[in-house]
């Protein structure tokens, strides 16, 4: 069964957005992430802030990148739910860590935070409905 077919056959809550919406939303979010996270990495690698400031941002990227292989490669809703929780946790950690230094990074990522909150609830709902 192809990935598209596998995901389509999963039971989803009535409020789940259509599949076609994910690509445009993530395209905008990835641009925001690239600019804002890139700025934080530049600050850290330039020695303007502690390199530890970049840690939650780096972890967020790792967990974000792991989601699709877990969800669609392994077809594991449970692992995807655990992973999206880590995406949310590291994003909150990152935004709290950077808010005093670069508040614009927090503001720029509010849409990402909102989407990840929504995606976390959605993933848990899908995981529950397909247990």
Q: Main β-sheet, in a few words? A: none
Class based on secondary structure composition and strand pairing: mainly alpha
Rg calculated over all Cα atoms: 16 Å
Give the CA-CA distance, first to last residue.
19 Å
How would you sum up this structure, described in words?
The protein has 131 residues and is mainly α. Helix content is 75%, strand content 0%. The protein has helices at 3-9, 22-45, 55-73, 77-98, 103-108, 110-129. Helix 3 (55-73) runs antiparallel to helix 4 (77-98). The radius of gyration is 16 Å and the shape is elongated.
What is the secondary structure topology, with strand pairs?
Elements: H1 3-9, H2 22-45, H3 55-73, H4 77-98, H5 103-108, H6 110-129
Descriptive labels:
single chain, 131 residues, mainly alpha
Summarize the structure.
The protein has 6 helices and no strands.
């Amino acid at each position: 069964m192809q990935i598209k077919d596998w995901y389509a056959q999963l039971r989803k809550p009535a409020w789940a957005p259509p599949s076609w919406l994910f690509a445009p939303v993530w395209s905008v979010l990835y641009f925001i992430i690239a600019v804002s996270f890139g700025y934080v990495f530049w600050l850290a690698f330039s020695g303007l802030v502690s390199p530890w400031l970049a840690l939650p941002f780096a972890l967020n990227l790792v967990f974000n990148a792991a989601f699709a292989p877990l969800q669609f490669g392994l077809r594991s809703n449970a692992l995807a739910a655990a992973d999206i929780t880590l995406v949310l946790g590291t994003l909150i950690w990152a935004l709290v860590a950077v808010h005093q230094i670069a508040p614009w990074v927090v503001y720029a990522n509010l849409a990402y935070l909102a989407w990840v909150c929504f995606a976390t609830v959605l993933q848990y709902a899908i995981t529950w409905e397909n247990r």
